[in-house]
Amino acid sequence: MSIASTTSSINQLNKEIASLEKAMTDELKKEADKSKKINDIRRSINKNTSVSSLQSKSRQIDTYSTDLAKIASKKADINKKLSDKKSKLSTLNLKLQKEQQDDDKKRAKEQEKIRQSYETRINTLTSQMEQSVHMPFRNSYPEDREENKAIEKYDVFISHASEDKDSFVRELATTLQDKYNIKVWYDELSIKWGDSLRMAIDKGLSNSKFGIVVISKSFIKKGWTNYELDGLFQIEMTNGKTILPIWHDITKDEVQAFSATLAGRKALNTAMFTIDEIADELHKILKGE
After folding, report:
1. 235 is in which domain, residue-wise?
2. Catalytic annotation, pick one of 99, 146, 228, 281
3. Could you list the mean pLDDT of each consecutive 10-residue stretch along the chain, which spans 289 residues?
4. What CATH number corresponds to the domain at position 201?
5. Residues 132-137: contacts with CB under 8 Å, at least 24 apart
């Protein structure tokens, strides 16, 4: 039984217990009412009560007594059902607790596996950087080379999933460029017909001061985005702070599961910041640089 199924069963049992407790309350009210009537009749009997009246009152007491016996039987039945339901509820609560613990362990194991994978990737990139004389990204295009003087430089590279263009990224890129005059590497603006995608991305990465990473559910599933992220990590190891994360329609737990390194960084969340506010934050960083 899954956590959701167990939770559903617990909720159903709680409803049934509440219904039985209400039924018990109703029976207790009936019991009190019948007992009061019997006591009232008994108090009304005195030495002046006629024989016929006494017989009538006795019959009323017998009737109420019979009702009380039925109520007692019904109360016993309700109590038994309540006891059974509460016993099942206790068992299910223990089961849910164990399932949640197992699920937490499973998630922790998966997150540790992802963390180790990223540490291995970063260590590999570091080793490649130390062993290689020519860096595959920024250092491949030094400013003082005559043949590369015409290479275009950018303030920021936007790494994103194509699924997020319409909802956020395209407007962010145009706002940065048109409103704040920030030089943006963005695939729709920077990759021309016939260009090599990998070469264009490598040049964009190597010639950008910062890299905005738009982390979303789609981003963490993509191959290209992981390639770009590797490049930004490698540049950051050489040049210091480079990666500027933005969370877009994603939870902290989902980011944590994808990358503990990224989850630990301060990020701007599109649920809390407008595009203009995000663009203004980048503008401040570039001015401060």
Report:
1. 153-288
2. 228
3. 85 93 93 92 87 89 92 93 91 89 85 73 61 44 46 84 90 91 86 67 79 87 68 71 86 85 85 93 82
4. 3.40.50.10140
5. 135/206, 135/234, 135/238, 136/202, 136/206, 136/231, 136/234, 137/202, 137/205, 137/206, 137/231, 137/234, 137/235
